[in-house]
Structure formats: C-alpha cells, structure tokens
Amino acid sequence: MTVASTQLPISFEDIIFSDITYKISKPHVSEQLIQSIKKYGIIEMPVLIQKNNRFIILSGHNRLSVANALGNNRQLCRILETFDPMFFSQLAIKKLYHNEIGPIGKIRFYQILKPYESDLTIQNSNLFDFAVKELGIPAHFLSSDELITRISSFPPLLIEYLEMKDPGFKTMRDLVHLSDATVAIVSSWIECVPMRVNIFRQIVELLYDIERKGSECNRLHNILIPKEGDPRQNEALLLQSLMAIRYPDFLKRKSEADALMMTLQKNGVQTKFPQFFEGDELSFIINIRKKEGSHSFFKKIDKIDKNTVEKLLELL
Questions:
Q1: How far is CA 230 from the centre of its chain?
Q2: DSSP assignment of 232-245, as one string?
Q3: What pLDDT does residue 252 have?
Q4: How many Å apart are CA 196 and CA 167, to the nearest integer?
Q5: Of 97, 261, 264, 293, whose CA is between 20 and 30 Å from 8?
C-alpha cells in the first residue's frame, strides 16, 4: 500500500534535525554537494514524515543539513503521512547503487524495515535474503539483536570511521567483542591518526587477541599517539606499541633485527625486513654507481656475513 503524500514548502524551524531515525547514508558531506546547493539549491526533493506539528527526515539528511548551514530557512519537501516501508526500501536501493550507504547504514536499513518484513518484498527477495545477498551483511549479524545494538552504541567518531572506511564485518565483529573501555580508546586513536583501513584491521585484531588473552589490557591506556606529526609514523608507533603488548618479546626481537641490519648496511647492503616479523622472506638491496664498476657489486656481496643473514632468517 502506498502512503499518501503532498508537496509543501517547510520551514527549517519545523524540521527536527536531531532525529536521525531514518538516516542510513554515510555522514560525509562532499564539497561538490555544498557547492551545488550554494549555486542551485536542493535539486532532489527531500522527503519528510509529519510528527505532530513538526517533521522528521526520511530522506535528505545531508542535503537539508547543508542548506540549513548555508542559511536557508525554507525548502519544498515531499510530506508523507506515515512511514512507507516500500518507498523507504526504494530510496535505500538508489543510495546503495550510488555507494552512499556504509556498513552501519546497511544494518540500520535492516533494523528499520524488520517490523514490516512479513509484508515486504525487495527485488523479489524477502528482507533477510536481500540483506545477506545484496547488502553483504553476514546472517549471524542479522540474527543477533545484541550485535546490532552494540554497534549502534559505538562512539560517534568510530561509527563515522566505520561508515566511511568500511573495514568489513569480520573486523566489526571483533570490535563488538571488545570492552567499552577499549572501544573508547580505539575511538580516541582514530581522532589522532587518520588510519588506513588495513592498519585499522590489524589494530582491531591485535586488540581482540590482547583482551582474549586477558592480561596487559591496562597498558592500552599508556599508548599516547600525538595528533601532530607524520600519520604513517604514528600508525607505525601505534602498531609497534600493540605488538609489544601482544608479543612481550617483540621489542627485543626488533632491536636484535635492527642491529643485524645495521651491520649489513655498513657494508653497503640494505635489508627489507617484515615490519612485524610476518612472512618468511627477506630482500636485500645493493646499490652501485657507474663509476664504481661491476667489481664493486661482487665486493659488497663478498662482505655479506652468512651468520648475520642466518640470524635474521631465524627471527622470522
């Protein structure tokens, strides 16, 4: 059944911007959207639902927020008398096509439509199958209200990161099982370091192992990451600190590896050693200048100490 609707100019004072019940799109507002609204206004009409004498946003959260911030005070909107699950699902499919929904938005989409699932068909599928096959949400997530509630309770900064970077549901599952205190620490690290998603996955995996091990969790509070400085160096500092907690002999092994590589470097040989001792392969680089001649290359090879290389391999 299609819910009746009308089109009306609505004052922004009558819109409850704080109510994000139906917000499923990513929180990022692009400069392109801002400039478009500045120049042309809102092109695609927002959709609101009347609530008493005011309105909540069904579609257009980002557009209306930008228009409001730009000083607009009125907007032509489509007004629904009540929530229309079929209409909402169609809006969501469009957003999905344009990659405007992150993993948490997908979960919210499922939560919003779950009360209507017995009467709802989306692209010839029931809601559960659509969420698994088209949205890529693991079935065990959908079957656990506890998991979904836990994710929804994450700090806003962490939720925004998950939405924009989409580290995958496996990483999100590990996050769910971390303590509230550790989740808060992760959120504070994100504020300091704009982490690459592969680094974030490693960090969550290490934290999951540290908490499962059940010791040294108090040391997490002592990891201080500066907001300034090289982001890549800060990532490395954070990973190194966690590795030292997860693997108590890590710093000792790293110090030993650094000393061995310095010995080789003094003889003109650079070593590419896995940062966290993963893998089973070493690489060596020997640089020679044209004026040195080819004999310089073989001379440097002869200076490579076999025992040094053996010790490096043993550390892997």
A1: 20
A2: HHHHHHHHHHHHHH
A3: 73
A4: 10
A5: 97
Q: How far apart are CA 163 and CA 20, in angstroms?
A: 15
The dihedral built from the CA positions of residue 57, 60, 66 and 70, taken in this order, carries a sign that is negative
Number of H helices, E strands in the chain: 15, 6
Q: Say which DSSP state 122 is in.
A: B
Q: How many residues does the chain have?
A: 316
Residues 74, 75, 78: CA angle, nearest 5 degrees: 140
As a dihedral over the C-alpha atoms of residue 152, residue 155, residue 160, residue 162, rounded to 10 degrees, the angle is -70
pLDDT band per the 50, 70, 90 thresholds, residue 166: very high
For the chain, what percent of residues have pLDDT higher than 90? 51
Domain regions of the chain by residue span:
1-83, 99-149, 154-248, 250-315
d(CA 106, CA 111): 9
From the options 2.30.110.10, 3.30.470.30, 3.90.1530.10, 3.40.50.1220, give the CATH code of 1-83: 3.90.1530.10
Amino acid in the structure at residue 40: Y
* pLDDT for res 58: 95
Instruction: Give pTM, 2 decimals.
Output: 0.75
For residues 88 and 22, the answer to whether their CB atoms sit within 8 Å is yes
**Could you tell me which residues come within 8 angstroms of residue 265 by beta carbon, excluding any fewer than 6 positions away?**
271
CB-based contact 29:64 (threshold 8 Å): no
In this predicted model, what pLDDT tens digit does every residue of 150-165 receive, in sequence order?
888 899 999 999 999 9
Contact 60, 37 (CB under 8 A): no
